[in-house]
What does this fold into?
Amino acid sequence: QQPVQSPQAVILREGEDAVINCSSSKALYSVHWYRQKHGEAPVFLMILLKGGEQKGHEKISASFNEKKQQSSLYLTASQLSYSGTYFCGTEISNQGGKLIFGQGTELSVKP
Amino acid sequence: DAGVIQSPRHEVTEMGQEVTLRCKPISGHNSLFWYRQTMMRGLELLIYFNNNVPIDDSGMPEDRFSAKMPNASFSTLKIQPSEPRDSAVYFCASSLRITGGNEQFFGPGTRLTVL
It folds into this structure.
C-alpha cells in the first residue's frame, strides 16, 4: 500500500533540473508532496487532486496521472535550498485525510 | 499563529517507563494526525482524529500505544510500557478538513530515546 518513490537519491549542481516520481498500486484521490530538511519537520509543497485541481506553491510544479496512479514533482533551476528529503503522501479516498507516505527521495544540491 | 506545538522536544527514558507526548494543533483545525518516523520504517501514520474523534488507529503498533484527544486544542500519545524499539521521532500534524486534499501542518516533533 505504501507508494514507491524513485529515485531514492539524487545529486544535482545548482541550476540543474530533477524529477521525482511517486507510484501507487491503488487508485488515488490525491497526492501530497512534502520536503523535509535534516532535523526538521516535513513542510508542505503541493497537493494534486483527482480531477486536475492543484494546490501549492507557484514555483513548484507537479503532475498527476490518474490512469497510471503516478505523480511527478519537477524541480527546475535547482537552488541550494532545495536540498532535503522529498516525500509523496497518497490519499486513497476522501476518508478523512489519511496519508500513506513513500520512503522518500534524498536530494542534494551542490554549488 | 504559533503553528503546531509539541512537547517535550526530546525525551530520554528507560525501558518500562511510561511516556506521554503532547500536541496542540493549530487553532481552528479539525483534523489531527500522529506519525512516527524512523530510518527503517520511514514516516508512518499511527492514528488520526477528525473533530476530536479517532477515525483510524490501524497504524498503532500494539496495545502499549494509546492516543486521546479530549478537546479540539489538545492531544496525547502515550506509550506504556516503553521499549527500545519505540525510539523514533514522533510528529503531530493538523489540518483544516473541508473536503479532501487538505495540507497538513507538522509540529517540530518529539525525539524519543528509550534506553
Chain A touches chain B at residues 2, 29-30, 32, 34, 40-44, 47, 49, 53, 55, 87, 91, 93-104 (CB under 8 Å).
